[in-house]
Amino acid sequence: VSSAGNTGNKFGSPFNTVGAPASCKNVFAVGATNSVGYGSGLHYVVDFSSRGPTADGRTKPDILAPGYALDSALSGSTDCKTKEDGYVKAGTSM
C-alpha cells in the first residue's frame, strides 16, 4: 500500500503524475478526494493527488480516500481531559 503521491498538478496536467512506489506492479495506490461540496467527476480527485495512467498504461490510483478539508484533532497534549478544538487538515498522510 502506498500513497499515490502529491504531484497531481505540478506539471500543468494532473494525469500521468503517479510515480514509484505507487506505480510499481503489485502496489495498491491510494489517492485523495475532495470533501463533499468541493467538486464532482474528475474534479472529485483533489488537485494535488497524483494519478495515472502509469508509463505502461495501468490505471492508478487503485482506490481513493478523503484527503482535503478534513476535520481532525489537533495533537500535542497527553492529557485526555483537555478539550481540543477541531482542526481542518489536508492530505492522506495526516
The major pleated sheet works out as: 3 strands, parallel
Helix-strand pattern, N to C? Answer: EEEEE
Q: Mean pLDDT score, rounded? A: 78
Percentage of residues in DSSP E strands: 15-25%
Order of neighbouring strands in the sheet with most strands: 1-2-3
Distance between the termini: 16 Å
Radius of gyration, in Å, reads: 15 Å
**What structural class is derived from the secondary structure elements?**
mainly beta
Q: What share of the residues lie within helices?
A: under 10%
Structure summary, number of beta strands: 5
Q: Explain this structure to me?
A:
With 94 residues, this protein is mainly β. Helix content is 0%, strand content 20%. It is built from no helices and five strands. It has a three-stranded parallel beta sheet, with no helix packed on it. Strands 4-5 form a two-stranded antiparallel sheet. The two termini are 16 Å apart. The relative contact order is 0.24.
